[in-house]
Design goal:
With 140 residues, the chain is mainly α. The protein has one domain. 68% of the residues lie in helices and 6% in strands. It contains 3 helices and 2 strands; from the N terminus they run ααββα. The protein has helices at residues 3-22, 36-65, 95-139; strands at residues 78-81, 90-93. Helix 2 (36-65) runs parallel beside helix 3. The chain is elongated and about 95 Å long. The mean pLDDT is 87. Keywords: Membrane, Transmembrane, Transmembrane helix. The chain crosses the membrane at residues 115-139.
Length: 140
């Protein structure tokens, strides 16, 4: 999933959540009855699906950067969507999982920048010297 697909999917899901929030029902005296419990179930599933989209994006990002994702068996890193009709529970990163993945990606990026920064500085300095020498030679 590239960045543009990710942003479009996030935008669509946030729009669904906003539409759900507009249709919030009046509270019912009995929380088990009425449409309010169904509303909150749909809202929670919509928010979990948003986390699934973000998880899918970060999985592709870590795969490209060769960074490991947290272990799927760690319950503090992953939550699961419990579908009524499907036994396969879709895993999604929790806030703690997102923090760890972002920190790992930042550390990987910093490592790459720390390796390339001296090389870029050296090449820029050498190009400056070459331009100066050419200016001196052709100035005569």
């Amino acid at each position: 999933m590239n960045y543009f697909e990710y942003r479009i999917a996030i935008w669509k899901q946030e729009r669904r959540i906003k539409n759900l929030e507009k249709d919030e029902p009046e509270p019912h005296p009995d929380p088990e009855m009425g449409s309010s419990s169904d509303y909150y179930t749909h809202l929670a599933l919509a928010n979990q699906w948003l986390a699934c989209i973000e998880t899918k994006y970060y999985q592709s990002k870590t795969r490209k950067a060769l960074v490991d994702m947290p272990d799927l068996s760690d319950p503090t890193m992953y939550g699961r969507i419990e579908w009524d009709y499907d036994e396969a529970e879709t895993p999604y990163l929790t806030q703690k999982g997102f923090k760890q993945v972002r920190a790992d990606l930042r550390a990987d990026f910093k490592l790459k920048v720390d390796v390339l920064a001296p090389i870029i500085s050296t090449v820029t300095g050498l190009l400056g010297v070459v331009v100066a020498i050419l200016a001196i030679v052709y100035a005569k």
